[in-house]
């Protein structure tokens, strides 16, 4: 498939609807089969550390405070202060008005500061507001912007509007990376997930992300499989690598490891890196830390051993 210049909605429609359809039964069966794989002993320890290093530790609530953000960022840099061998997480993700607070805490630790923008989580605002939202976050020190697409425009077939909005937000990002949230729970079909993935990549997105975490279902294995196939095929055809971020519903170490197996078996080991794969899940971090400690000491920590998120 050749990438159109997006000179018209018709050219985008023709390209996106020319993609091969997704075999829903096959995708469900493939994801379910990979989800049964087990990883044990030394490999499990490596997988846990890899998963920790891929977490985007997130707080996106109306009641967020500066203190809550600072505590979360401290945990991102040192997930277990008693064990310096635990890797730091990949990033923290906050609202634009709290970016400066997060930036101050993570400093030069290597933890990225991500910010949701573009009228998150609905995406229902003017392009001018979305661009201003993005610019504010970048000016405050955001390394990454998580934007949400206009699902209404996408579902009504106005692909050009979505394409041009992603391009405009990408330009407003400057040096910051752009993660494009598809909100797959509202896209209804796997074919739509594949089309939205390609649209986001064609428009310049650096990552494609399943969900805002506010809509269910969120990061299911089959949806993530479809998106991993999309980035794999996009690199094969266009020569550009794009990351994937499942977000929402990843709560246990078992869930996280299933995602890593899915990445390895679908897109390939090149994506097994925080630069190319993230886990948008805060609640999973404590379980990863508990399982890691169990492998080290032979016993589980108490429920109050790690800080709550």
From TrEMBL:
It comes from the Bacteria. SMART domains: DeoC (SM01133). Pathway: Carbohydrate degradation; 2-deoxy-D-ribose 1-phosphate degradation; D-glyceraldehyde 3-phosphate and acetaldehyde from 2-deoxy-alpha-D-ribose 1-phosphate: step 2/2. Keywords: Lyase, Schiff base. It is an enzyme of class 4 (lyase). The keyword Lyase applies. InterPro entries: Aldolase_TIM, DeoC, DeoC/FbaB/LacD_aldolase. Its EC number is 4.1.2.4. NCBIfam families: deoC. This is Deoxyribose-phosphate aldolase.
């Amino acid at each position: 498939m050749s990438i159109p210049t997006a000179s018209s909605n018709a050219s985008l429609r023709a390209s996106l609807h020319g993609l091969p359809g997704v075999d829903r039964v096959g995708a469900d069966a493939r994801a379910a089969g990979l989800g049964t794989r087990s990883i044990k002993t030394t490999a499990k320890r490596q997988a846990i550390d890899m998963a920790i290093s891929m977490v985007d530790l997130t707080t996106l609530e109306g009641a967020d405070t500066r203190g809550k953000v600072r505590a979360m960022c401290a945990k991102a840099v040192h997930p277990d202060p008693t064990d310096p061998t635990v890797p730091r997480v990949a990033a923290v993700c906050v609202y634009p008005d709290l970016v400066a607070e997060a930036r101050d805490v993570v400093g030069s630790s290597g933890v990225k500061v991500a910010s949701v923008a573009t009228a998150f989580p609905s995406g229902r605002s003017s392009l001018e507001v979305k661009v201003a939202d993005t610019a504010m976050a970048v000016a405050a020190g955001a390394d990454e912007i998580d934007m949400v697409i206009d699902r209404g425009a996408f579902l009504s077939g106005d692909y050009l509007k979505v394409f041009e909005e992603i391009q405009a937000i990408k330009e407003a990002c400057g040096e910051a990376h752009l993660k494009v949230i598809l909100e797959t729970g509202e896209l209804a079909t796997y074919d739509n997930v594949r089309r939205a993935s390609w649209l986001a990549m064609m428009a310049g997105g650096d990552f494609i992300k399943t969900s805002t975490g506010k809509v269910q279902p969120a990061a299911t294995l089959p949806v993530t499989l479809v998106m991993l196939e999309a980035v794999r095929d996009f690199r094969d055809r266009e020569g550009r690598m794009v990351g994937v971020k499942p977000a929402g519903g990843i709560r246990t170490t078992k869930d996280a490891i299933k995602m890593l197996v899915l990445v390895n078996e679908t897109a390939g080991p090149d994506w097994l890196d925080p630069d190319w794969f993230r886990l948008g899940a805060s609640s999973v971090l404590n379980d990863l830390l508990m399982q890691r400690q169990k492998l080290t000491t032979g016993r589980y920590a108490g429920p109050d051993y790690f800080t709550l998120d």
